[in-house]
Amino acid sequence: MRYGVIKVIENQKYSPDLSKKYTVADMLTGFGVAEAVKHYYQIYGGKIEGKRAIVQGFGNVGSAAAFYLTQLGAKVVGIIDRVGGVINKNGFTKEEIRTMFLNKRGNMLVAEDMISFEEMNQRIWQVPAEIFIPAAASRLVTKEQITNMIDSGLEVISPGANVPFADPEIFFGPIMEYTDQKVSLIPDFISNCGIARVFAYLMESRIELPMKDEFMFNDTSSIIKKALKKAHDLHPYKTDICKTAFEIALQELI
């Protein structure tokens, strides 16, 4: 299990630069966050190609999610990080997102034409986008920010952060409930399950050796897809997805 998580990625499909020796732990959670968006459109209708995305936080999860979203055909139009951010309403190119990923300073965004955090925090929530990836610290996203994004065309939220909304409650505070009733909110325990899932995968006896990147990444993608499909089978609507998934999870735990 320890070897699998720190395994250096060898398949260029999953790494922005093989020479940098990124590991499964570096990339898998962000990969799952992006795959959750892909599966959402496949299951609930629509295509990810051409959809605009805003990413909050550019650490391991947010930067990887941005990288994989562009590989899937989405357009990242804004990134807000703790030191500032960038906006391109036409969408950054794959190469621009890759460059920002590779130029990170630790977990901090480094890019040309950086906008201050104060200005970004005023502007980003009105930038038209269908996809939102909250992947910074927990409990940051406010009701006002979500409402502004909904008014600008938001369709789906795929959290990279645990409990991304500024609610004191651990489960289903008022902002989270409001959001779930307005747009498609993928629950964080599905969208960012990557590392937890790879632990489970590595503890199973069916693992094929030598261990390959695609086995672990495909397993995470498959689990996310199954979880979203199960929620859709029970409640085939684009709202209350999070509520439905929680009900399923609680029933399975009892």
Shape: globular
Total helical elements = 11
Total number of domains: 1
H-E string: HHEHEEHEHEHEHEHHHH
Structural class: alpha/beta
What do these coordinates show?
With 254 residues, the chain is an alpha/beta fold. It has one domain (2-253): 3-Layer(aba) Sandwich (Rossmann fold), CATH 3.40.50.720. The protein has eleven helices and seven strands. The protein has helices at residues 2-5, 24-44, 60-71, 94-102, 117-123, 143-151, 174-182, 188-191, 194-202, 213-234, 241-253; strands spanning 52-56, 75-81, 84-87, 115-116, 131-134, 156-157, 184-185. Strands 4-3-2-1-5-6-7 form a seven-stranded mixed beta sheet, with helices on both faces. A hairpin with a 2-residue loop joins strand 2 and strand 3 (84-87). The mean pLDDT is 94.
Any key phrases for this structure?
254 residues, alpha/beta, Rossmann fold, 7-stranded mixed β-sheet, 11 helices, 7 strands, 47% helix, globular
Task: Outline the fold blueprint.
Layout: H1 2-5, H2 24-44, E1 52-56, H3 60-71, E2 75-81, E3 84-87, H4 94-102, E4 115-116, H5 117-123, E5 131-134, H6 143-151, E6 156-157, H7 174-182, E7 184-185, H8 188-191, H9 194-202, H10 213-234, H11 241-253
Parallel strand pairs: 1-2, 1-5, 5-6, 6-7
Antiparallel strand pairs: 2-3, 3-4
